[in-house]
Design goal:
It contains 16 helices and nine strands. By secondary structure, the protein is α/β, with parallel strands linked by helices. The chain folds into two domains: about 1-190, no CATH class; about 205-480, 3-Layer(aba) Sandwich (Alkaline Phosphatase, subunit A). The longest helix has 26 residues, at about 55-80.
Length: about 500
Amino acid sequence: MLLISLYWLVTIMVCAGIDTQAFPRARRLIRSYCGLTINAAIATGIFGAVIVICGNPVLAVVVVVALQALFIGVSNAKFVMLGEPLLFTDLALIGALFKHPQFYMSAIKPRQGLLAITAFIAVGGMLVWFSPSGWEKRIPGLAFAVLATAVLTVFQLGRIANILAPVPAALSDTSRLGLWPVMALYSVRWRSARDAIPCTTAPVRWRFGCPDLIFIVQCESYADPCDLGLNQPEIPATSLPGLAAAKAAAIDHGKLLVSGFGAYTMRTEYGVLFGRDESALGFRCYDPFLTAIRDKSYAMPHRIEGWTTHFVHPHDMNFYSRKRIMAAAGFTELSGEEMFSTAQTKDERYVSDKAIADFLIERARTLSEPGLFYAVTIANHGPWTSTDSCSNEKVYLDKLGRSDAMLIQLMAGIAGLKRPALLVFFGDHRPSIPGIVKPGKDLHTPYVMLRTDSNGRFIDCIAPSVDRTPADLHHQILAEMERRIALREA
């Protein structure tokens, strides 16, 4: 037992040293004492579990150290690309990692991925190879597992988690406490969060003079190149004529204050659809889709009456559980990738933005009753790599230009319907292009809101720029849906 205790002590010390390499780094040499204690408890629990499984303390040291190094490596790669450390909610995406690896593997260099796979296979083989046949060498592991459980339970039951992590602040908390402690504490705070009181606000009802058709388009990685710093002379940035024309005719436009960079589409999507600010979500803000069904009474389809509701996303609707969430949110029609032919990908990885606009206009043309469409595009999803001489930023700008052309196409198509309509168009987050567009203080994307009368003419309005959160945009859309305008003669 003494020898095993020495191995355990080495494990704790090495893990404490490895954790100092996690981004963002600690402001001092080591993390806080509470952070060190929690990190040690987690390492102890894994150490004990490995001994229970294989009875080999040396292998237990290797497994714990390798696991912590893996978490730190993945977290640092994510921090460099997205500006955030690894979060406890990211563990919910492990299944999606294998089903849709193209969304995640671009953040990991090939040698890092190969090293991780090799280490996983090696550790698994060692667990099998070095496992003894008797139980006498496994029993000490139970003592370490019980000790770890007792320490972690104290942090959960003694309200210490509430004190150490009173509000979501992943960057500062990781710097202060460490990666594993923050993941553990935030998980506790997330599980203890209370559901919101069901929404009792009277729904917006369609009346004569309200818009018949509402188009809400959430555009993948749509951002102003000037905001991204892509306006240098050597990089011919697109001027986004669609955005310029939309702003000139908009009843509302400005900066959409999204909270994610390069990913986390669901944060923006949740805010616009459910209208709840991240401050009200607490620790659920990092992935609100995990608990979105509990907030279904706040979803836009449940907040309106008189419009049929359609959700369009040209991808696997099970990704992020959209199929289940959007059905619970009240959408009467869900249109996924099965609604689009292979030819509509334009030889790209995803369905083109033009195909989305064609689908929306054609589907709206067949509607005799008022309808609301919420569309999520994906054509401009990274990685923006090219096999020819084009640079990554050029690939991104080319796709951005196609997204901007979709905005022009939507404006023309909606005007041609000659029905009172409302168009809302916005970017879900900025792109993360390694070495070119990096995480920073500014995260905002553009949004525009336009409205046509019964003759398809855009309502004249000189709208000043207004900064809005996604949740604020939700309420502004509802307010505009309720606003009636007088019909004009052709």
